């Protein structure tokens, strides 16, 4: 123990320390709130500048939140009474691509439907989901689980959820899901209208919608017109229907109205959307593991896999081509992991989370403490096998023939059971995806590279401590690099899985549960799968325990925040959330300040004439003319393009509408800044920003550059 | 002619247009003033915030300006009564390098002389020059030239200048030069005390003095401690002397005092130094040529030479090594040319200069107009052969054997004449340099690459119009690519100049005017040199005409500026100049603002542990301790590092002292920003900035990090 301090701590100092913890733990601008929580934080909302009634935001099946929809992989919003959906260009990219041909390249040229007849049908799997029900089903989900533990707890929750979904989906045109809030504390049944006939109404050219592309991705200042307008259609009966020329525009229960003026620095802003996943309420131990082990380990192993691909493909131009996409993906993942690590270190997140948790635990009663201790034990079990889990995961995702063999053998096993009892991923509805995976091997495989990747991954496996060993793997690959090399050489010299017909013949057998052809890799898979199944069982047992124990941690955290005068939002899980804040500048580095609003001057500055900075001539001409009229910012005296807020977002928030204090649409979320890449774990108000298309830019483009006056009229402009 | 305008131009509009021209032509902050001009612009200086008497600055041989010296290739200043000279780390780099050994690496470790005995002698050719005389000699220089033209005018000016220098340098320890101001309008004899015994007193480690290196070069925000302290010694008689242990510290006539507080945004600042060359007062036609031809042509030819080196060295790792430095230099030159082009386009310099010149010409009398028209004619003659001049220049600078052959043959010709009559560059004092050039060929030559470079350059020559052809070149290389390739193959198959002994034998013959050995490349050089001499004669004839005619242009410009209420500084020519302005932020791009002061936080942010961002541990520790004391900025509450002003600088201003309104030393100039790379032609107040070391950072390093209390005391700190 440290020596007793010479001075007693002054109460005012203690208070200051406490306030510091509070502000670190619950920043005024942090929060992905469930709609139902908004009345609870109404006072904060009003203080931040919201002019409407927070109570009116509580029901996500009523206006204005029922105008916010799930669109493709992101978010969208209705912006007209006739079903116009506004979302990002990158969220609707598949729709634009689907309608493009070499002769009519809508990606490059953009598209304006002259009238409704000219609206182009989206790819048939494109969906817009309108939330029509959000009901608490915690008791139904947990009823049968209570008293159980481990795998049994997991299975009980899983079975109850599936039952609720199946029952709910009896209604046609409705898609249902059960959302797990606060890590197993609460469960909600979500009912969504599944709109299946979407059509392309307006898309800007790529060089506007994706101006800057990868170079500007995650970057601010930004100058991208990342928006597209679709229209939802339904059958004549008003019900969701597949595409048909007879369908009629969907009449949404409400739609957002575009503001006539734009925002300025400091102005209130709020956003609604479907953020995918965050880890903000994970334990201090999980934070420490992420920073001290997971992210550095990911960076290191990605580096080594990149080196292995380089090694395996040296002097082989065709191999380089085949692995180009895997290399790109590894580099991106490495960059993300390194960026997340940098950010968490810069924010001192581990120390702050630990300090906050110590305070919380001191204020937590014995009952929950017991569960929290047990939770720590389960997490420690998982940590004990983390390196093996990382390596086995990569064994599946970073190889082609090895992955195919494991997939085929597992499919053979699962196919012997009734479809409903099969592991998800191996059910009848997954077969097309599996077949696709097996087919694409041809374009992405080279034996020397795959052996180099496996030598790297399994070499690392060989160096694991005994506690993490798997007898099946040791038997198959030996325990020395030489044994491994010999085993790999024999496997890849003997396997015929490199031939597509052989893989597809094995697939035909596997999907019917029949014996697979004789092949060294398939025989190896048959020997390894028992280990895989055993680990899966262990994982589900742990997951069941986590599901059972985390609620105690969440209860303690909610109580702790209440004591500090704050509320707790559930970590993001793909359900509708609202965040609020303001337009705020960014000071990312010493002496550098980025204003929160960009202007068209920046487009001309960035323009090089080369992709991705090849602004179209009509845009450059319009900028040079300077004829901005009503869409110009009165203070800046020019046309704005993008703006920056401190809103709390993550992946899935693409296309989220940004509203002003009066609830009018001022922007469209499309990205966040590089400094915020660690925000999925830790919200640092100094660095967390979200990047939006200014609706005035969209209006100006649609008025002056690629005019669509009929669409503007429909949006009330 | 355009149709008559419907409205007559309103007088107020005409006035506004005129004012716009005025402000464009003479920005308040633009100007590299001669000391003698400062009383003339005294009112501006006072309005800008200068608290002293501008008249006291008029004499550059009196305090404070006689404390500002030429040091190495840059500027320095006396900062103690015992001859301490403060300059940049990069300006004193040769001195540090000269004293470094593998065992005692002063570059990496820095150096602190514990006492005077420990001060380390500089390389013997390092000089510090103290200006002790600055006298107008226009009449002596131009007396014999008047009435002449062309080459005769050039030779008369050249001969008079050489006479003045020779006479002046009869005094021992004095170096003299004749400076041409306003392009031949005025001439000044400059007398400088030549201090030859310099010693290293204090240098920070490379990772401070050159923190960021090439990556941060031209960049702001910056975090570099680019300073070093030397001491000048003289003989016991007080006269300049070569290094000797008996020498004593030089007692300068005055020295600068370091300010106790530091500057803030908006504060007045001024700077004195030796800027090398600017082109601000060139004609509108020269501006247009620079932007429309010279810079694009340079970018294009550098790209093609880079491609040629790539092509010629393909698959040859040794060739890649040999040409690495040439490739780097071509890339740097390409980057500079492209940056200058970008800047001039961004500033709309061509249009603005042309508009300004039109106004000037309209206000100019017939006599000067005649000379200005004649000047335009001479410039047009030069333009007519510009592409050939560019190619022949590169033929000399970008080849090794070809250059050696031309050098040797020319040396042979010149060596037949008395030394004083030889072309400069081929005199006795140049022989060591020529020998060095011939020796280094070995490390920088590959025949395939040289042939590829020549094929590129001479291929471009072959495509020139007939008016630019040279019979000697056509005879040597033919007029088709095939003929060229055949000629090059024969030359390089036959030449022995690739062998150093052969080159040195030829050198021994050439320096004595003897016949050179038989060698195809030397024989080629003998056939080409007559063309080279003819072009040189043409060039000198044009230069004489430019020297005769530009003064009319300058007179017209000075009169035009007087009419606008402004004064004209001469374009930079390596003589002492003063500029004044203030600390000013930079807004280089849309939505980006750089504060004018950086802090140590930025060092920690940039630190990666890898060169060039490998801040030394003692510095990182001191930053973490945060013990900044008296050197901390009171408003920022932390230690500043560098600051940014709008002062007018160019190459040669490295090491210039930056003074506050009271004439106290607040900073040390060491770089400018990338956006200002075009400022040698056009001063754009939006983008022109200069980057300085904050003297508080130097003090803090010398107090807290690498302490040298005795040196601080000597500087009065």
TrEMBL record, chains A, B:
SUPFAM superfamilies per record: Trypsin-like serine proteases (SSF50494)
Q: Does the keyword Transferase apply?
A: no
- Alphabetically ordered keywords of this record: Aminopeptidase, Hydrolase, Protease, Serine protease, Signal
Per the record, the GO terms for biological process are: peptide catabolic process; proteolysis
Q: Which family does it belong to?
A: Belongs to the peptidase S46 family.
Cite the GO molecular-function annotations of the record. dipeptidyl-peptidase activity; serine-type aminopeptidase activity
- Which Gene3D superfamilies is this protein grouped with? Trypsin-like serine proteases (2.40.10.10)
Q: State its Enzyme Commission number(s).
A: 3.4.14.-
Physiological role: Catalyzes the removal of dipeptides from the N-terminus of oligopeptides.
EC main class here is: hydrolase
Q: Which Pfam families match?
A: Peptidase_S46 (PF10459)
The protein here is known as Dipeptidyl-peptidase
Q: Which residues form the signal peptide?
A: 1-28
């Amino acid at each position: 123990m440290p020596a007793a301090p010479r001075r007693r701590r002054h109460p005012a100092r203690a208070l200051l320390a406490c306030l510091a913890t509070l502000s670190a733990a619950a920043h005024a601008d942090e929060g992905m709130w469930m709609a139902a929580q908004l009345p609870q934080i109404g006072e904060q909302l009003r203080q931040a500048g919201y002019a409407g009634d927070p109570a009116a935001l509580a029901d996500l099946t009523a206006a204005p939140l029922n105008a916010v929809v799930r669109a493709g992989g992101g978010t969208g919003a209705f912006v007209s009474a006739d079903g116009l959906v506004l979302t990002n260009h990158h969220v609707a990219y598949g729709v634009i691509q689907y309608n493009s041909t070499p002769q009519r390249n809508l990606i490059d040229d953009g598209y304006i439907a002259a009238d409704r007849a000219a609206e182009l049908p989206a790819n048939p799997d494109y969906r817009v989901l309108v939330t029509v029900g959000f009901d608490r089903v915690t008791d139904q989900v947990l009823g049968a689980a209570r008293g159980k533990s481990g795998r049994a707890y997991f299975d009980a929750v899983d079975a109850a959820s599936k039952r609720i979904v199946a029952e709910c989906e009896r209604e046609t045109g409705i898609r249902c899901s059960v959302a797990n809030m606060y890590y197993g504390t609460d469960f909600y049944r979500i009912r969504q209208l599944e709109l299946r006939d979407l059509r392309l109404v307006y898309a800007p050219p790529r060089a506007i919608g994706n101006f800057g592309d990868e170079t500007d991705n995650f970057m601010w200042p930004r100058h991208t017109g990342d928006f597209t307008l679709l229209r939802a259609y339904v059958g004549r009966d008003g019900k969701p229907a597949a595409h048909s020329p007879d369908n009629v525009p969907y009449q949404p229960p409400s739609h957002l109205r575009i503001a006539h003026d734009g925002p300025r620095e400091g102005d209130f802003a709020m956003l609604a959307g479907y953020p995918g996943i965050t880890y903000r309420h994970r334990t201090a131990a999980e934070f420490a593991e992420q920073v001290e082990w997971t992210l550095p380990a990911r960076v290191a192993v990605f580096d080594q896999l990149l080196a292995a691909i380089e090694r395996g493909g040296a002097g082989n131009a065709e191999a380089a081509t085949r692995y180009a996409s895997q290399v790109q993906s590894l580099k991106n993942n490495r960059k993300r992991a390194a960026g997340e690590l940098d950010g968490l270190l810069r924010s001192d997140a581990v120390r702050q989370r630990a300090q906050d948790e110590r305070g919380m635990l001191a204020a937590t009663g014995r009952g929950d403490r017991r569960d929290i201790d047990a939770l720590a034990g389960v997490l420690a079990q998982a940590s004990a096998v983390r390196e093996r889990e990382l390596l086995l995961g990569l064994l599946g995702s970073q190889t082609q023939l090895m992955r195919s063999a494991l997939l085929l053998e597992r499919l053979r096993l699962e196919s012997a059971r009734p479809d409903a009892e099969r592991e998800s991923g191996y059910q009848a509805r997954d077969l097309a995806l599996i077949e696709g995976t097996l087919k694409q091997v041809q374009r992405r495989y080279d034996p020397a590279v795959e052996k180099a990747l496996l030598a790297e991954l399994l070499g690392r496996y060989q160096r694991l401590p005994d506690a993490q060993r798997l007898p099946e793997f040791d038997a198959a690959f030996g325990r020395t690099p030489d044994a491994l090399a010999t085993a790999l050489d024999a496997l890849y010299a003997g396997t015929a899985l490199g031939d597509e017909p052989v893989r597809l013949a094995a697939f035909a057998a596997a999907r019917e549960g029949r014996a697979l052809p004789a092949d060294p890799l398939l025989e190896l898979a048959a020997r390894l799968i028992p280990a895989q199944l055993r680990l899966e069982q262990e994982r589900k047992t742990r997951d069941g325990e986590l599901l059972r124990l985390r609620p105690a941690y969440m209860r303690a955290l909610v109580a702790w925040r209440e004591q500090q005068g704050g509320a707790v939002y559930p970590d993001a899980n793909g359900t509708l959330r609202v965040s609020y804040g303001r337009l705020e500048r960014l000071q990312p580095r010493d002496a550098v300040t980025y204003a929160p609003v960009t202007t068209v001057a920046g487009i001309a500055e960035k323009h090089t004439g080369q992709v991705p900075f090849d602004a179209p001539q009509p845009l450059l001409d319009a900028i040079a003319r300077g004829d901005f009229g009503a869409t110009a910012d009165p203070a800046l005296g020019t046309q704005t393009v993008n703006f920056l807020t401190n809103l709390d977002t993550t992946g899935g928030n693409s296309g989220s509408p940004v509203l002003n204090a009066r609830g009018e649409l001022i922007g469209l979320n499309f990205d966040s800044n590089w400094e915020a890449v660690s925000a999925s774990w830790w919200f640092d108000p100094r660095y967390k920003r979200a990047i939006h298309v200014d609706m005035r830019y969209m209006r100006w483009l649609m008025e002056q550059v690629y005019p669509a006056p009929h669409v503007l009229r429909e949006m009330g402009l």
